[in-house]
Amino acid sequence: MASGALVITSLVIVGAMTVAGVASFIWGITKIVGVIRAGAPESGRWTDPIQRIWTAIRVTISHSTFKQRPLIRAAHWLVMVSFVVLLLTLVSSFGQIFNPEYALPLIGHAYWWGWVSEGFAWAGLLSILTLTAVRFVTMWRDEETPRSSRFFGSTRWQAYFVEWVIATVCACILVIHALQFGLLSQSGAVSWASYPLTAWAGKHFAGASPSALANWIVVVASIKILVSMVWMLVVGLNTAMGISWHRFLAPVNIAAGTHANGAKSLGALSLPLVNGDPSSDLEQAADEDEDLVIGLGTTADLTWKDRLDVMTCTECGRCQDLCPAWNTDKPLSPKLLTLALRDNAVAAAGDTAPFQGHADTTDVLGALSAAKITGENGVASTNADLVPDVTAADVLWDCTMCGACVEQCPVDIEHIDRIGNLRRFQFLMESAFPRELQRPMRALETKGNPYNQMPRKRLDWAKDLDFDFPVIGEDVEDAEGLDYLFWVGCAGAYDEKAKKTSAAVAELLHVAGVKFGVLGSAESCTGDPARRAGNELLFQVLANAAIETLQEAKAKNIVVTCAHCFNTILNEFPQLGASFNVVHHTQLLNRLLREGLLKPAPAPDEEKQTITYHDPCFLGRHNRVFEAPRELLDSIPELKEVEMADNRELAMCCGAGGARAWMEETRGTRIANARMEQAQATGASVVATACPFCTQMLGSAPTPVKASEPETLPGGPVPVPSDSVQKGADIEIKDVALLLLEGVRRGQQGSHPRQ
């Protein structure tokens, strides 16, 4: 038996720490609930509760949100499961202080429990050591360029503290089991099968005295309990400690996501918040309430879901790791923005516990300051204007809304929707937005397109075609007799390079025998640039007008070349009550190829090309169209396709999304330049893409230069030359439709493609 004095001393210390730890943990829960409940009411988050609960269980158990990181995924899953399973061993430790031979009731020293408890103890220990090593190596590797690390700005002591706790608890379990085996084996009361993974160590204790072994079991069990209670004490005092609290908050956050089935908040931008509640009719809302607040302006405007979202952040930095703005030396980091909002919400709720908040820690405050995200005093500690008191305006307008942050977040944080509502407040409530947006917004209001061109010029792209097609409303009454309505889009109608794509798609449809028509001057912008800029009121006006036009045209099938038009018609028009069957041109052309209606021929040897494909964000990441363009390229005989380092879900943005096509990049490196560096690294002579804005932006990238040294640009709302020739690099930028057309013409004519 263990020493009586030791047992009493352990009970006193363990008892006191248990009371303190549990009280702190409960206090922390109440504070977190208070912070979340202080948010504005946001409806629609608990529709289809059964589906949402199942989604939370499925995603949590499968760890499906851990993308492209199999080692990290496996290690984190093992730590998570170990955390749950080994809670029972904490109960055992209390019993082992009284009786070193203690075993759980009903379970006892069952063989299966030996495998489960020891298996997960070993797995948890090895996994947490792996995660610690990854963190250490990553930060050490990136020490000279700290912004390149996804852990830049993460609170280091919190991460190392949690990892120490898990490693210590797992090690204590294994040591206790080894000591118990040594003690129990002396009397023959247990076999190695009850301790399958620790008996090898326990046999070395078999010669020790029973009292010594019993004392050591009491000591190690006490250490295990104390470490666990220290964890509860610390996390209870640190309600913003997402690396610990996410274990409990993440399943709730996933359940309350935009989509009940667990789909990421990609595609459609969320409806604007009006006094905290989503609204699809801002004009009506304004008529009913003159004092309404659109979007997010102050700490008080953050909804309960916004607060739950930011409280769930684990500071893992996966969002930061792939952010095109952050990786081209701009202030925006989706992680640091989330942390700033979190710490402001917590501080504004009056949480001033000893270890609370990042304003008192070197890591995050230093990172925020270095990124020029906050002022000199760090994160605001009161209800404040979110811009500029919590985050800088530059942070908002640097976002391309590419979706990389949302795609990678393991706890389903909705970064883009929050930035969208921050922009809406700045644009509509404060009239505070980049001056470059004035011209395209005015053009959208007066001309129905951001290029400030007359509607009568919408058919200029087709003037050199040698075949006819109907204009709906002029040549035919509606689209009922047609296979497809070709939605050309503003870029496809007015941008010189995009006009070639429009003509190519029309010719391919004609060759394939597809009956199609266009709207001509009746077509107008879908409103995407306005919505991404924060001008939600203008978006709703434009979108409703486009919806009315499509409904009057009786469009049963729509094909588009612009990834942004595709996303808006497919995902955002339904928010306004209208759904259409819409396909991207790469999807339709790929189907026509498979059906044998288009037959490309190989190029002559001297014209064979190596091609790399750039995934448009609003086609790929936002709408999961990855394979259709690649299959289309693969169908062109003897064309060699190579992938860039970042492709598909990991593809880097061109820099045009989020209305950034209409704004200059005045900080860091141009995103398009960085993407073209990746393209150049493949050795390809052609970059194929499937969005006119990608073509514009990538085509404007010369040899890599800093945005602080901007080139002289022509007039117009688009701050890049849309049909420029690559400077210093023999790389062409072409839409996949143009490449396919070249092959089809060769097949038709048995000669080189027309110039």
Describe this structure in words.
- The protein is mainly α.
- The protein has 29 helices and ten strands.
- It has four domains: 47-208, no CATH class; 254-433, no CATH class; 439-593, no CATH class; 598-749.
- It is 49% helix and 4% strand.
- The strands form three sheets. A four-stranded parallel β-sheet has the order 4-3-5-6, with helices on both faces. The protein has a four-stranded parallel β-sheet with strand order 8-7-9-10, with helices on both faces. A two-stranded antiparallel ribbon has the order 1-2.
- The longest helix has 34 residues, at 4-37.
- The chain is elongated and about 100 Å long.
- It starts with a helix and ends in a 6-residue tail after the last helix.
- Residues 353-362, 703-728 and 751-755 have low confidence and may be disordered.
